[in-house]
């Protein structure tokens, strides 16, 4: 009896084998392996149903309510509403319940509609037909019925229904082409490879006979990583084990191209597919404005509690006088007299909390959300940020950080593809000290392409010629380029000067540039067919090399290798990579000559790569195969084992030469950096390039200037001095020269002060970040930060992706807590983009991973200037005014209610009618400030672009500092005092109507409320600089709506609405001449201090923005004529008010 199954089960369940948790086993076609094979525990996997919706019909109401009441403001108003229901409070529960109901309902409808659309999309996807292989024939079923282990057939232009292991293809070579535009936005064709032992299975019957099991990792969201292995069983032999990687995995959402059909086995289905796992949102980022808003809310909550406590104490002090607690007309019952004093006091405290709770603006959160959501469209609609060349425009992935764009203090940018075009052009190559330049000009004539010209010495001898050709073969073979015929290619990259019309496509533009460059020097890469790489040499002979192994490039090793076998049976390892990763592994070759040429090219800003090789004997190759196979089939730590294997293989190399390609700067990159520096923003360049190349690019883009003194913390310098000595020497140099730069002068644009630039490499950064032996981990970091603060620009070269994130984090959490922005275009920039406060991706040639993981995406680096200096500036100005204005108008609203208690015996009598309490924040004052926060332009767009220094006026959260917040609060208190006591003193003459009637309580409250609505609305009108017809309609329309509503509510317009309390109150107030005078006079007195303060400040201590506004105001008449090409909605230029 075979007890292997029992043993396996006991071992795994009792001994706790980790493999059952960390990996999964899939039976291909649901066929169990033959007897005697290792037994596996079947695992439960979900079906292929995609659920992107958040709610169901049954859980929508409870789940949505739970999520909304998790917000502290909503929960607070819910408590207030419940208190109003439970105890006897001075205001109706409607006054709190209706605004809360409005906010909750609007949000629920919006979220419900969005979820309904997701349900429709899910249903369409889940019911899509899919072809299964079942019992040797094709069966058509709905996609949602697909299970892990099913064999699926996909035809050309169809989308893969789940994550599949690629088994076979209609192509003879077992490859297929796919596009992943819906996953990562890349439209280029990618090549995937079928499993070597199954690519010959071309029919349904063949697939049904396949015996195989797949072991792989559990589902994880990384689109570019997969680890697994397949065991293919035959009747006679032991199973064949093959490694599986990302090149064998076809992802759900990708589309099959240029391939008639493929077969694959489902390995991840439904919500376990990589596409579904990437639905999960990134960690939430919060802006500085949102944090300030929450702090202000806490302050106002404390004010609210203080008001309630003061009134509760004053009530019992007032009632301590005889007969005040129980007047003769309002005697208490015996039960009321026996009631506990503390319970009565607590009830009164809650009643006062309810009475004053409107100081916390419930509608502010909704208004802020609407402002951010609607405001984000101004970026996507900006035609100046649309790139005609690529057809791409800006994208907003999150609108929560709009205002953060106006607070950036540090910009961390990648170099390649961000500052540069990532459009490589082959310039030269150096082979054993001889330099070759394609299309070189000699005596005014362009030499033919195949004539490689030696720019230094005479042509090399016979041995040199052999090395030269070996170098060109190495460049032609050491890459991962695909070759397509021009007719079927999706890209424009055609091989120049070739008789054959073809296109080179690669994930790396460097590889295409190198292969095209050596083609102009006589060696043409033709194709990869049946695992043989073909190239054409100078004699037009076709050479074939069998591709044995590819040692893929990664950002840690910074090199790649191929192992090939020539037609004569010789085995070569060709390796290319950065000079820092090749030179230490070289044992032979003209290292000094090539190194000097590499350094010279780097100084000129060229990107350099070194090429080396070594010959392998058969025994060496067999050892390498075993080493790589063991690493490739490992399910645990495969990346580490492969890295160790590559390290052992890529050594004892012979240096052949080096290449140089040029990556031109992007258009207006230098202008953009210069503008950012003038705006007071520090720009750091973080790149993986070598120091000389990166420094040349920094000079070209004006990050460094000719008078900039460069300070270095590099590996080369640390070989001569200790890190401690280097840092202290640099610190002493900066402080001795008095170059401590503040925010106003650190841009290095002044000729008076010495301008410093810092260069640091990845190895030096590792030493700085590493804890010291004495345990004090932060001292080097602080010293390093002090040096950086006093440098106008910093260049970090030789940076690994995680080191980029480390740099951003180091600055982000320094003691000043500056706002950081990271911008990049490649997958290696994703870590720093996620780490920074604001992440911006560039839709570049290295794919769209950066754009997908960013908060915003732009087509070119030059668009960053307008995004920060214009859009960011406007966003911050608008939302800061919105937040301050909301608190101001609620102080104006509730402080008269507080004062009124001193005149009504602290009886909790309301000053305003219930309708006014309810609609003040919802209707009467909400729309004007929302429109202001969307359209206000205190300075013209062109002025902001022309004068970047205006950005400094709003730096460091300038408009939401405590000084500004206190000013707005005291302004609200002053206006409330004017409203209340102005109306009160007018009421001292009680016979104010023509017929001798007296004004009552509700008339007094309506007068105060009317003055308040007009004051807060006109205050916003005075603050508005950019007037359009929409502003006029909304501001004056909201005042008109208040008047019409009051007449309607008082039974004047519609007699059926004769609400008893307010019946004819409003019209009675307006029938009095003193009331009209009071309204006009009190509004003027309320607005006067703010107007005087602004006039004095602008005349005596004007900011840069106010100076620009004044000059723009003088030019306004000359610029008033509209331009015919401007939109009708907006004025041609923002017309600031005259002061």
Q: Could you walk me through the main structural features you see in this protein, from its secondary elements to its overall organization?
A:
- Strands 16, 17, 22, 23, 24, 25, 26, 27, 28 and 29 form a 10-stranded mixed sheet that branches. A 9-stranded mixed sheet has the order 14-36-35-34-15-30-33-32-31, with helices on both faces. Strands 3-2-4-13-5-11 form a 6-stranded antiparallel sheet.
- Helix 5 packs across helix 30, helix 29 runs parallel beside helix 33 (962-986) and helix 33 packs antiparallel against helix 37 (1073-1100).
- Strand 22 and strand 23 (532-536) form a beta hairpin.
- The termini are far apart.
- With 1139 residues, it is an alpha+beta fold.
Radius of gyration: 37 Å
Beta-strand share of residues? 15-25%
- Main β-sheet, in a few words? 10 strands, mixed
- Uncertain residue segments: 1-20, 440-458, 486-500, 739-752, 1120-1139
What's the average pLDDT? Answer: 79
SS summary, helix count = 38
Span from first to last CA? Answer: 100 Å
Fraction in helix: 40-55%
Please state the overall shape, judged from the principal axes of the Cα atoms: globular
Number of strands: 36
SS-based class: alpha+beta
């Amino acid at each position: 009896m075979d007890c292997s199954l029992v043993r396996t089960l006991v071992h795994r369940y009792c001994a706790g084998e980790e493999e059952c948790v960390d990996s999964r086993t899939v039976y291909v076609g649901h066929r169990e392996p033959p007897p005697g094979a290792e037994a596996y525990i079947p695992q439960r996997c979900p079906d292929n149903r995609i659920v992107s919706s958040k709610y169901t019909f049954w859980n929508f109401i409870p789940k949505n309510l739970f999520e909304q009441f998790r917000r502290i403001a909503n929960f607070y108003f819910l408590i207030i509403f419940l208190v109003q229901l439970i105890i006897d409070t001075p205001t109706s529960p409607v006054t709190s319940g209706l605004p809360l109901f409005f906010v909750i309902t609007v949000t629920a409808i919006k979220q419900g509609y969005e979820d309904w659309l997701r349900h429709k999309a899910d249903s369409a996807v889940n019911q899509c037909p899919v072809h299964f292989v079942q019992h040797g024939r094709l069966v058509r079923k709905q996609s949602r019925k697909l299970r892990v282990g099913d064999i699926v057939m996909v035809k050309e232009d169809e989308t893969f229904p789940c994550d599949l292991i690629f088994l076979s293809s209609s192509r003879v070579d077992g490859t297929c082409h796919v596009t992943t535009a819906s996953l990562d936005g890349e439209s280029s064709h990618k090549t995937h490879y079928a499993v070597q032992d199954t690519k010959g299975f071309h029919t349904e019957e063949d697939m049904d006979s396949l015996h195989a099991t797949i072991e792989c990792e559990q589902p994880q969201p990384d689109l570019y990583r997969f680890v697994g292995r397949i065991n293919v069983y035959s009747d006679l032999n032991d199973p064949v084990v093959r490694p599986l990687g990302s090149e064998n995995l076809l992802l759900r959402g990708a589309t099959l191209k240029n391939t008639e059909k493929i077969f694959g086995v489902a390995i991840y289905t439904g919500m376990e597919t990589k596409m579904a796992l990437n639905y999960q949102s990134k960690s939430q980022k919060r802006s500085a404005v949102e944090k300030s808003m929450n702090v202000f809310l806490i302050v106002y909550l404390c004010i609210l509690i203080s008001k309630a406590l003061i009134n509760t104490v004053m009530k019992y002090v007032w009632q301590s006088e005889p007969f005040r607690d129980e007047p003769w007309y309002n005697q208490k019952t015996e039960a009321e007299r026996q009631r506990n004093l503390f319970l009565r006091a607590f009830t009164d405290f809650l009643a006062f909390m309810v009475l004053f709770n409107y100081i916390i603006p419930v509608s502010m959160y909704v208004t802020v959300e609407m402002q951010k959501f609607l405001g984000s469209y101004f970026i996507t609609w900006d035609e100046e940020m649309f790139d005609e060349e690529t057809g791409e425009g800006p994208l907003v992935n999150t609108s929560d950080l709009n205002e953060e764009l106006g607070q950036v203090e540090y910009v961390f940018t990648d170099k390649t593809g961000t500052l540069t075009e990532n459009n490589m052009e082959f310039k030269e190559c150096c082979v054993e000290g001889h330099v070759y330049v394609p299309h070189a000009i000699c005596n005014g004539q362009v030499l033919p392409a195949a004539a490689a010209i030696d720019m230094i010495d005479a042509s090399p001898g016979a041995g040199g010629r052999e090395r030269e050709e070996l170098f060109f073969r190495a460049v032609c073979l050491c890459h991962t380029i695909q070759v397509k015929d021009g007719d079927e290619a999706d890209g424009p990259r055609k091989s120049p000067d070739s008789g054959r019309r073809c296109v080179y496509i690669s994930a790396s533009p460097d590889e295409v540039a190198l292969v095209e460059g050596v083609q102009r020097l006589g060696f043409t890469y033709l194709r990869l067919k049946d695992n043989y790489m073909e190239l054409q040499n100078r004699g037009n002979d076709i050479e074939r090399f069998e591709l044995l192994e590819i040692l893929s490039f990664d950002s840690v090793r910074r090199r790649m290798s191929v192992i090939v076998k020539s037609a004569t049976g010789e085995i070569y390892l060709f390796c290319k990579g950065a000079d820092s990763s090749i030179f230490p592994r070289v044992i032979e070759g003209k290292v000094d000559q090539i190194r000097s040429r590499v350094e010279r090219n780097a100084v000129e800003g060229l990107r350099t790569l070194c090429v080396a090789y070594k010959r392998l004997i058969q025994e060496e190759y067999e050892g390498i195969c075993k080493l790589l196979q063991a690493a490739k089939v490992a399910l645990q730590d495969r990346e580490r084992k492969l890295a160790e294997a590559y390290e052992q293989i890529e050594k004892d190399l012979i240096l052949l030469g080096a290449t140089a390609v040029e990556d031109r700067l992007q258009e207006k990159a230098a202008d953009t950096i210069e503008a950012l520096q003038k705006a007071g923003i520090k720009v750091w360049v973080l790149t993986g390039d070598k120091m000389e190349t990166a420094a040349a690019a920094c000079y070209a883009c004006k990050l460094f200037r000719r008078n900039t003194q460069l300070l270095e913390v590099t590996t080369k310098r640390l070989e001569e001095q200790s890190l401690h000595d280097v840092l202290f020497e640099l610190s002493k140099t900066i402080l001795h020269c008095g170059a401590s730069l503040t925010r106003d002068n650190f841009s290095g644009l002044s000729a008076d002060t010495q301008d410093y630039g810092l260069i640091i490499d990845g190895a030096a950064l590792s030493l700085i970040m590493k804890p010291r032996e004495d345990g004090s981990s932060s001292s080097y970091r602080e010293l390093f930060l002090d040096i950086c603060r006093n440098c106008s620009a910093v260049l970090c070269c030789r940076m690994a992706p995680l080191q980029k994130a480390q740099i951003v984090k180091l600055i982000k959490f320094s003691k000043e807590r500056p706002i950081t922005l990271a911008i990049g275009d490649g997958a290696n920039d994703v870590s720093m983009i996620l780490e920074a406060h604001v992440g911006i991706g560039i839709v570049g040639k290295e794919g769209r991973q950066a754009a997908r993981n960013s908060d915003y995406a732009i087509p070119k680096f030059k668009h960053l200037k307008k995004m920060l200096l214009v859009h960011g500036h406007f966003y911050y100005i608008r939302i800061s005014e919105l937040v301050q204005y909301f608190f101001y108008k609620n102080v104006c609203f509730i402080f008269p209610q507080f004062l009124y208690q001193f005149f009504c015996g602290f009886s909790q009598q309301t000053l305003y009618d219930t309708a006014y309490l309810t609609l003040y924040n919802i209707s009467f004052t909400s729309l004007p400030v929302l429109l202001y926060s969307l359209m206000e332009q205190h300075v013209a767009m062109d002025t902001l672009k022309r004068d970047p220094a205006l950005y400094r006026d709003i730096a460091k959260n300038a408009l939401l500092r405590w000084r500004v917040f206190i000013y707005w609060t005291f302004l609200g208190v002053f206006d409330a005092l004017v409203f209340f006591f102005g109306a009160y003193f007018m009421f001292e003459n009680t016979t104010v109507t023509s017929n001798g009637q007296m004004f009552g309580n509700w008339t007094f409250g309506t007068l105060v409320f009317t003055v308040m609505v007009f004051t807060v609305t006109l205050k916003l009108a005075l603050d508005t600089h950019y007037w359009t017809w929409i502003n006029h309609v909304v501001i004056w329309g909201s005042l008109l709506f208040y008047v019409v509503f009051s007449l309607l509510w008082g039974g004047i317009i519609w007699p059926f609405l004769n609400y008893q309390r307010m019946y004819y109150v409003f019209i009675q107030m307006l029938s009095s001449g003193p009331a009209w005078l009071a309204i006009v006079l009190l509004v003027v007195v309320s607005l006067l201090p703010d107007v005087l303060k602004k006039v004095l400040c602008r005349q005596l201590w004007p900011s840069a923005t106010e100076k620009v506004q004044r000059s723009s105001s003088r030019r306004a008449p000359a610029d008033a004529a509209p331009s015919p090409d401007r939109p009708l909605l907006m004025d041609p230029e923002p017309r600031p008010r005259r002061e």
